[in-house]
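#lab-general

N.A. 3:47 PM
ok so I finally got the sequence cleaned up, no stray characters, all 92 residues accounted for. can someone with queue access submit it? mine expired

B.Y. 3:52 PM
send it over

N.A. 3:53 PM
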Amino acid sequence: MFRLIRVKDDWTTFDGWVWLDGYELDKKGNAVARRSVFVQWAGLRVVPQPRPLPPTQNAPPAQNGPPAQTGTPIRNGRQYPPNSRRLPSARP
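B.Y. 4:20 PM
back already:
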C-alpha cells in the first residue's frame, strides 16, 4: 500500500505516466519508508483508509481527578496527617 503525499506534475513524463511521492505502508497502515514511484494513472486504484483499531481490553481505565493519597507523609522525620497544613518548625 502507498499513502500519497503529492503528485510531481511538474516533471515531464510519458503520456499517461506520473511520479508520485508518498509512504510505503505496512499491514497495520503505518508508514515504513518514503518512496517516489513512477506509475501509470490507468493502473492506480484508491483503497479506503483502514479503520482505527478499537481499544484493547487490557488497557488501564482512565482516571478522573488526582490520585488518592495513601499513607502518612513524613516531613523532617515527623509524621503528619495527610491533609495537615502544619509546617515543621526549624527547632529540633
